[in-house]
Amino acid sequence: MRDVAIVAFAQSAHRRRTDELSEVDLLMPVLHEVLGATGLKANEIGFTCSGSADYLAGRAFSFTMALDGVGAHPPISESHVEMDGAWALYEAWVKIQTGEADTALVYSYGKSSPGRVRDVLTRQLDPYYLAPLWPDSVALAALQAQALIDAGDTDEGALAEIGARNRTAAVDNPYAQLTGDVPAGDHLVHPLRTGDCPPIGDGAAAVILAAGDAARALCERPAWIRGIDHRIEAHSLGVRDLTDSPSARLAAERAGAFDRPVDTAELHAPFTSQEVVLRKALGLGDEVRVNPSGGSLAANPIMAAGLIRLGEAAARIHRGESDRALAHATSGPCLQQNLVAVLEGESAHA
Amino acid sequence: MPDVLSAPLVVEFPFTRSLGPVQSAFLTGLRERTVLGVRADDGTVLVPPVEYDPVTANELGDLVELAPTGTVTTWAWNPSPRRDQPLDTPFAWVLVRLDGAGTALLHVLDAPGPEAVRTGMRVRIRWAATRTGAITDIACFEPYESEPDQAEPAPHTGEFADPVTGIVVPARLDYVHTPGRAQSAYIKALEERRTVGERCPSCRKVYVPPRGACPTCGVATAEQVEVGPRGTVTTFCIVNIKAAHTANLDIEVPYVYAHIALDGADLALHGRIAGIPYDQVRMGLRVEPVWSEGARHVDHYRPTGEPDADYDTYKELV
C-alpha cells in the first residue's frame, strides 16, 4: 500500500441561502484556496474526483458545470460520484493506490436552498415500498431516535446536550452556519426537536491528496490516511437494528481505528441521536474530542458534510492539534452506509 | 437580492419500475387485501418481502400469508404532514412488525396525538378504498387492541388473477431556481435584445452565454462584453424529425440547426437558421438574430446578405 495523505483542506462559509451564487461560484473560491495552499495548478493534479447530487438544486448535470471552476484544460483525468465527497475521496485514494496518480483534487458541494431538502431526500429511497410514502429525512431519523430512547440509550435531555455541545464547539469555527446557544425548539418530528436537526444550507469543500514524498513536499505535517473503508447495511429500515451501526463498526475495524486509541473524532451525525449510535458503534469514550468543529449539527451542506469531516480531522493534524484522528462520513437513511478513515500525523508513530 | 433572477422550477416525472416475482405477489396481494411475506434462509419471515435474502443474497420465493395486525416497534409523531405523505392530518410514522413476521414495515399510523402512540402498541391495517397494487393500498395503520396472532403463517402460492407487474410512482419536486450572477446578467440583457457575454481575465476569451467561470482557466469571469448581433455559422445539421414539443410545432422540417459564433464571442452558441432554403446553409454563412415577439430570446437567425466569412476567421470555434 502507498502512503497517502490529506495535504490541504478548504471549505466555504456555509449559509442558509446563496441565491447570488451559481454552484460554480460557490465552489470556485474553495478550489482556488485548496490549490493555493499547495502551490499546485489544476493541470498538475493527477486525478480529480467530485461528489454532488443534481436533485438538491434540481439542476441536471450541475457537476459538469462545476468543472468549469477546475479549468479542465488540457483534458484532465476526472471522475464524479453522486454521493458525498467522502466517497469521491475514497475513489481518489484507490486511484493513487493503483499508481496511476500521485496527487488528487477532491471536491464536493451542495446547494440545498433552491429545493425542499426533506422531500428531495425521499427520492433516494426504495421506489417500491418507501418512496411512495414520502418519508422525509427528519421522520426517518426520528424513528431511529425513538428506538434509541426505547432501548434506554438516550433521552431528549441527553440529545439536547449533544446539540448544545456541538454548537458550542462551532463558535470557534468561522465556516459554521449554526453556532452557540441554539434553543432546543419544538418537535419537528417527535422525539426530534429543531435543535436535534442539522441546519439546511449551501456549501462546498475540497481536499488535496498526495502520496509519499509528494505529500511531504506539499505539507509540513501531512495527515496520513492509515486506513479507510466503507460498509453498507440493508436499505430496508425494518430489517436493521436502528440502535446500532454494524457497518460503521466494521468500517472502523478495517480502517484500523481500534488498533490504537484516537484523540479526536469527526463524526458525520446530522441528527443528535445519530451521534449516540456512532459513539457506541465506534467505542468512543469521553477521552476522545468528538466534533471539535461542531460537526454537521453546525453546518450540513449535503454531499459535502462528510468530506468536511475528513478535512476537519486532517486540518487538526496539519495544525498539530491531533496526532491520530478518526473521520467518519455517512450516506442513506439512518446511517445506512458509513465510511471511516484513520488519519495520523508523522510524530504519532515515529 | 439585487440583480439576481429567480423563478419557480418544477421537476416532475413518473417513476416507472417493473417488479420482481416477490414484489409482484406482495403488491398484488395488497390490492386483494392480502399481506404476504417471504421466508428468508434462516426461517425469518420478511415483511415487506424482498427478492433476495438480506444475509445470504440467495433468491427467495417461499411466500406466506400474514394477519393484518401487528405491533409497533418504533414510532415518530409528525405534527405537520407534507404534501405527498399518506395522511393530511397529523400522524405517526411507524415501523410495524406484523404478527408472524420477523421484520418491520414502514408506514403511518392514524392516531389522535402522540400521547396515544407507544412502542409495543397493537395496530391493524386500514385498507385504502381504491387499491391498485401499491404500498399505498395500505391507507395507514390504526390502533387495534388484540392479542398477537401466534399462529405460524400459512404458505401462499402468491398467485392472483391479473397480477401487478409494474408500478408508476409520480414524483414532483418544487424548487426556486436562481441562475447566479453571470446568467442573471445575460438573461436581463436579452430583455433589451442585447447579447452579453463575459471575458476571462486570464485567456481573454469571451464566453456566451456566460456561466461565471472560464472552463479553460478555472477562474471567475466578470467583465461583461456585448457581442453580436451578427455572427457566423461555424457548423450545422439538417433536422428531419418534427419537434414533439408544443413550443416548436410550427417549425416545418427539414430545417437547419447551427452553431453560430457571434461577432466578438469565443464560444459558439446554437440556434435555428431560417430565411434561406435549408440546403443552401453553409459554414461561414453570415447571420443575424430575429427576436421573438414578446419573449426575451432569439427565435431564429437569418442571413445578413454579407459575403461568407473566411474559414480562418472562425476555424478555432468549429
UniProtKB/TrEMBL annotation, chain A:
Gene3D superfamilies according to UniProt: 3.40.47.10
Protein name: Lipid transfer protein or keto acyl-CoA thiolase Ltp4
Organism in which the protein naturally occurs: Streptomyces globisporus
Automatic annotation (TrEMBL), chain B:
InterPro entries xref list: ChsH2_C, ChsH2_Znr, NA-bd_OB-fold, Thioester_dehydratase-like
Signal peptide: none
ChsH2 C-terminal OB-fold domain boundaries: 64-127, 225-291
Domain named ChsH2 rubredoxin-like zinc ribbon: residues: 188-219
PANTHER family: BLR3430 PROTEIN
Stated name of the protein: Conserved protein associated with acetyl-CoA C-acyltransferase / conserved protein associated with acetyl-CoA C-acyltransferase
